[in-house]
């Protein structure tokens, strides 16, 4: 009887876990749709109303500024009010951002457009914790797959984000007003989905904070630093190249529909592997998968040197997307091994705030770098960064092997 009761409880717990992961994956799909939409048309809308070409990517940079600025307070606040409240407030920020951005285009105001995308960035700051929320409801065996499956929701965004950007572009006058109104609608749908979450409140974490290690002790661990550097490398390089792509393709006489198709292929590359990345990490180890991600980044650079036609852009951006997936999921999985439950607020916030600060710098500089160096030279300049990340991963792998050899039998 007791065995049957235990088995029934285990089954119910498994169902609850999978339901929460499923809802988080839907929310991820909707959030990424909004984010990809900004990446698809943000630079084009900015270029339409910007007085200077190098400021065209300012709306995209503002989105990453919003994410970098809000990430740390969002993480700490959610330890007090719980994940669901924070996630819903974040989605409502996306609604406000979409409405503000649409109004700004009607007024031809680059600064107001950037404020609107800043609010979308605040939405992104909260949404980046969906993957950590998935890891919190899953057991150790299911954790890598839970993270992967939530990020796998971005497959929908690969199709919907560019499609809505392209559909909304000519929908209303001036161009792109409709795109940002659709963004507001998608964000409202996400808020509705997130109301169904029932993730255990993390208030207890605040009471036990004194038992955790200091912030400096957590973030100076070698494993933490390598996980952070790997994920920041993946995100920074991906954002720099992705932000520059629509503008570079316009310079090379590709129209919006062709550009949107390339972005769709890229985002599919980012999220489609999520359905098996967790299994690959379990089989081959997280460091090897992250190194494979860097090898794919090198393939992106090589592909970008083959020309400026559709196939060259598409092939390069697909490799860029898969490389990001391996580095980002790998970095997240590695990071979760470096902190205790009572330390997660500070550890996760520092990680994501740093990643999005790097994303901010890369998105803001993309327009100027493209203007001065051109598409192919811009990609060549990324190789030393990739090399440093590879060395860091190889060093950590060597260090871990040495520790295993020195451990008592």
From TrEMBL:
Source superkingdom: Bacteria
Q: What is this protein called?
A: Putative tetracycline resistance protein
Transmembrane parts of this sequence: 21-44, 56-78, 85-106, 112-134, 146-164, 176-197, 218-242, 262-282, 289-307, 313-335, 355-374, 380-398
- All copies of the Major facilitator superfamily (MFS) profile domain together span 222-409
UniProt keyword list:
Membrane, Transmembrane, Transmembrane helix
Which PANTHER family would you find in this protein's record? MAJOR FACILITATOR SUPERFAMILY PROTEIN (PTHR23534:SF1), MFS PERMEASE (PTHR23534)
- A GO MF term: transmembrane transporter activity
């Amino acid at each position: 009887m007791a065995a049957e009761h235990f088995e029934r409880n285990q089954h119910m717990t498994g169902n609850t876990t999978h339901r929460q992961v499923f809802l988080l994956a839907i929310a991820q799909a909707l959030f990424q749709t909004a984010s990809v939409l900004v990446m698809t048309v943000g630079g084009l809308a900015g270029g339409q109303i910007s007085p200077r070409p190098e400021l065209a990517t300012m709306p995209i940079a503002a989105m990453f500024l919003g994410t970098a600025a809000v990430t740390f307070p969002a993480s700490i606040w959610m330890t007090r009010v719980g994940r669901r409240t924070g996630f819903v407030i974040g989605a409502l920020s996306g609604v406000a951002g979409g409405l503000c951005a649409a109004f700004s285009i009607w007024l031809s105001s680059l600064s107001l457009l950037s404020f609107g995308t800043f609010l979308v960035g605040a939405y992104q700051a909260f949404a980046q914790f969906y993957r950590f929320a998935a890891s919190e409801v899953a057991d150790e065996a299911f954790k890598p797959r839970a993270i992967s499956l939530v990020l796998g929701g971005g497959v929908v965004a690969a199709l919907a984000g560019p499609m809505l950007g392209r559909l909304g572009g000519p929908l209303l006058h001036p161009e792109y007003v409709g795109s940002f109104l659709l963004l507001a609608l998608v964000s409202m749908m996400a808020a509705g989905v997130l109301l169904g979450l029932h993730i255990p409140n993390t208030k207890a974490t605040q009471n036990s904070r004194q038992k955790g290690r200091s912030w400096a002790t957590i973030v100076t661990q070698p494993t933490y630093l390598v996980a952070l550097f790997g994920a920041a490398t993946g995100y920074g390089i991906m954002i720099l190249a992705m932000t520059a792509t629509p503008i570079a393709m316009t310079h090379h006489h590709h129209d919006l529909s062709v550009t949107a198709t390339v972005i769709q292929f890229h985002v599919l590359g980012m999220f489609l592997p999520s359905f098996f990345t967790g299994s690959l990490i379990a089989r081959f180890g997280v460091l090897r998968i992250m190194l494979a991600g860097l090898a794919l980044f090198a393939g992106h650079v090589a592909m970008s040197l083959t020309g400026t036609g559709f196939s060259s852009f598409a092939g390069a951006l697909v490799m860029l997307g898969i490389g990001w997936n391996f580095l980002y999921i790998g970095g997240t999985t590695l990071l979760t091994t470096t902190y205790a439950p009572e330390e997660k607020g500070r550890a996760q916030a520092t990680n994501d705030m740093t990643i999005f600060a790097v994303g901010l710098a890369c998105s803001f500089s993309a327009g100027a770098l493209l203007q001065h160096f051109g598409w192919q030279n811009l990609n060549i300049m990324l190789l030393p960064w990739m090399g440093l990340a590879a060395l860091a991963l190889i060093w950590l792998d060597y260090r871990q092997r040495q520790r295993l050899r020195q451990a008592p039998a």
